[in-house]
Amino acid sequence: MFKLAAILALSLASFFPDLGPLPEAAPVRVMPREVKAVYATAYTVRGKRLAELRQLMRDTELNAIVINTKEPSGPKLDEGLRNTVRELHDEGVWVIARHVVFQDDELAARDQRVALKRDSGSLWRDSGGRAWVDPANLDVWEHNLKIALDTFALGFDEINLDYIRFPTDGDTKAIRYPTWNSQTSKEDTITDFAKWFRRQLKARYPRAIISADVFGYTFVEDWDLGMGQRITKLAPYLDVVAPMIYPSHYYGKNFGFANPAEHPYEVSFQTLMEGRPLFTGSPRTLVRPWFQDFHMGATYTPSMVRAQFKALEDAGYASGWMLWNPRNIYTKGALLPKITAER
After folding, report:
1. Four-residue CA torsion sign, 187, 193, 198, 203
2. Please, are residues 311 and 272 in contact by the beta-carbon 8 Å criterion?
3. Is pLDDT at 175 greater than 50 in this prediction?
4. Structural contact between residues 99 and 69, judged by C-beta atoms closer than 8 angstroms
5. Is beta strand 320-324 parallel, antiparallel or unpaired with respect to 286-287?
6. Residue 169 falls within a domain, yes or no?
7. What CATH number corresponds to the domain at position 130?
8. Looking at the domain assignment, is residue 206 inside a domain?
């Protein structure tokens, strides 16, 4: 048995010579049937607020946390994070790494050969002032893979790919791409990246879970919305698809509501139901949405937050959810107490 394992390890190492030695075996962790997570920035995790989130997870139905590990300003990895992950594991928490892919100030400034630019040669920036790198560039792919491998080496259970798309806001007509051209569609470019990333990462960490954030509206329209995310093409290469169903981000009149933010149940339910047919070709891919727990468009009460959970249940999904609040402050009253949730 040992000899066979050694041969397989050598074969994989030779097939992926740029990735270095294979990682040491780690204890197998099983993803909860229903992941119930909150989001935390790198700053929160390294400060006193993490203790508050850990207590919230002890007290309520929460069993997972999403931690920023790569932000537009660069990777946020260090040995202290390894200890944090280990402590969270000891408390039974599923630990997810949020990894911002193509929105990348740090790489764009450091290697302008892969950066999106204007005709003047200056960096192109979106409406939020962020720089981007070319989604079709192999060096960009390898850069993200290296960070992902470093992330799993710290013990993370899952990587959540965000901004896995082309830019959508700002003066997009002014973008000059160093690699991508319209001979390859945006949806094929993003799909090719997901397929390549999965193959490379799973070769090193076969049990790694890969999730990706997509616009909520990708569940409503079966096309790439002009930014490369098309569920029917992308889902087969993901373990989990995470639609960002924030009612405040829907346009007025979506689903017939003048202000969709005031209707979290209806917006969530209809989005999830309309997305069901898109997964017929990838039945093993799970759906785990991001839900709104912040005030925008309406004041979100505990009942409004919980209405989104009810919509998920009524739509027939049972893989869990993730709560987003940019300040990492969550509505405890929207969460079941731990004892009640475990009955």
Report:
1. positive
2. yes
3. yes
4. yes
5. unpaired
6. yes
7. 3.20.20.80
8. yes
The residue type of 33 is R
Percent of the chain with pLDDT over 70: 91
Q: Which residues of 133-158 are buried (b: 16+ CB within 10 A; e: fewer)?
A: bbbbbeebbebbbebbbebbebbbbb
What is the number of domains present in the chain?
1
- How far apart, in whole angstroms, are the C-alpha atoms of residue 307 and residue 291? 10
For 189, half-sphere exposure in the C-beta direction (CA atoms, 13 angstrom radius) is: 24
Q: How far apart are CA 185 and CA 182, in angstroms?
A: 6
Say which amino acid occupies 32: P
- Residue 9 placed within a domain: no
Q: Rounded to the nearest 10 degrees, how much is the dihedral formed by the CA atoms of 322, 327, 329, 334?
A: -40
d(C-alpha 66, C-alpha 78), whole Å: 16
The H or E element that residue 90 is part of is helix 79-90
Supply φ then ψ for residue 94, to 5 degrees. Answer: -80, 125
For residue 249, give the DSSP letter. Answer: G
Share of the chain above pLDDT 90, in %: 89
Cα gap 123→117, rounded to integer Å: 4
Domain that holds residue 180: 36-342
For residue 171, the tally of other CB atoms under 10 A from its CB is 12
Q: Using CA atoms, how far apart are residues 52 and 57, in angstroms rounded to an integer? A: 9
**Interval 91-110 mean pLDDT:** 98
Give the phi and the psi of residue 140 in degrees, each rounded to 5: -65, -40
User: Does residue 132 lie within any of the structural domains?
Assistant: yes
